[in-house]
Give the backbone structure.
Amino acid sequence: MKKSLIASAVLFSSTAIANVEAPKNIIYMIGDGMGPAYTAGYRYYMDDPSTKVVEKTIFDELFVGMARTSPDDDTVVTDSAAGATALSTATKSYNGAIAVDTDKKPLTTMLQIAKSKGLTTALVATSQINHATPASFAAHNEYRRNYNEIADDYIDVKINGKLAVDLLLGGGYKYFIREDRDLVSEFKQAGYHYESDFDKLNTINSLPAIGLFKETAFAYAIDQYPTRLSDMAEQTFSLLDKNKENGFFVMLEGSQIDWCGHANDVACAMAEMDDFANAIKKAKHYVDSNPDTLLVVTADHSTGGLTLGANGDYSWHTNVIKGVKASGSKIAKALMKSDNLLSTWQDKTAITLDKDQAELLANKVITAKNEKSDETSAKKQLVEHVKMLISKASNTGWTTSGHTAIDVPILAYGKGADEFRGHLDNTEIASKLINFIKQ
Ligand code: MG
Ligand code: ZN
């Protein structure tokens, strides 16, 4: 542990940016769990089959390098808390840490530095806004699941006597409106506009503001709002544009790429990638009209060991994935409610089953239906079986329900983007951004 602390200190000092003029505004985007198989998979998923070439995606267009993601221990594999702490504070910590070091002492985040420099600040996520990634930009906690304490920090950790985040958009009102404390009232008292109805996102037209649109997280893009992150991104850039006299810093997270990866649900993952890609396009568009802005996109780690092609077969079938219309858990629910199993299966997946597969699926549905309401194992098995059929038909591979240590892509665009070229440690991405914010 001591060795890696010294190593990260050396990395930090070696990345000081000399003679590069800082951008005025910084847009930082994190695809949670978005390893290179996700960006490559999305390219094939989006390919126009009527042309011979595989078209580039926004991820290919803006690609500049790769980042290492290991946490500050000997496990090599990071979680989202240690990953986000590295990406927000330039310091490696332990898995579970929310912007605290290995001694559990608070680390100053780039958002807090931005606020102290007078920049307008914002956090946007499709998870609860106090989930590990956004939390590591504005809260300090020894453990990522202390959701109430993390939400409290959004009010209690003040910068020069002011709240640190001028705009918060995401889910999670159950952590903010509680019996012991009503943080939403406290935000209102501090002058914030509050909105909980996602259909009224566009009515948030001044800062400071907080939008908490779900009790916890948004539903998956594939099941409900396919454009919720890109819609929030658009509203965020319009609000920040009106508040950019001293520049702005915003972190937007594609939170649930990771969750689809944990679930080993490839159609779910591609729908999350599509929402994230559209949000990145909005950010790029903002940079095109505001060239004093820097856009940096990366991931905290990869999830699921996603593999495009599996079982020795040289193929990956994106047409199968495109035919899947819901997450594995929603498909399983629909099957349990259906009186015509095969037609519901066709409707939700467009995957043709042979006789044995159809019989096995029907049996699993009956077992799940007959399960007592206080039990879930047969229902869980049905969900897993549905996802296995989709993975099999598309020839998608998965090696784990957790994270992996593979390097992740770095994309950069706009003023200062060249600084992010090559192979970086995740702490170097943060230290370069912090150096810009401090200028
Ligand atoms: Mg996250
Ligand atoms: Zn994860």
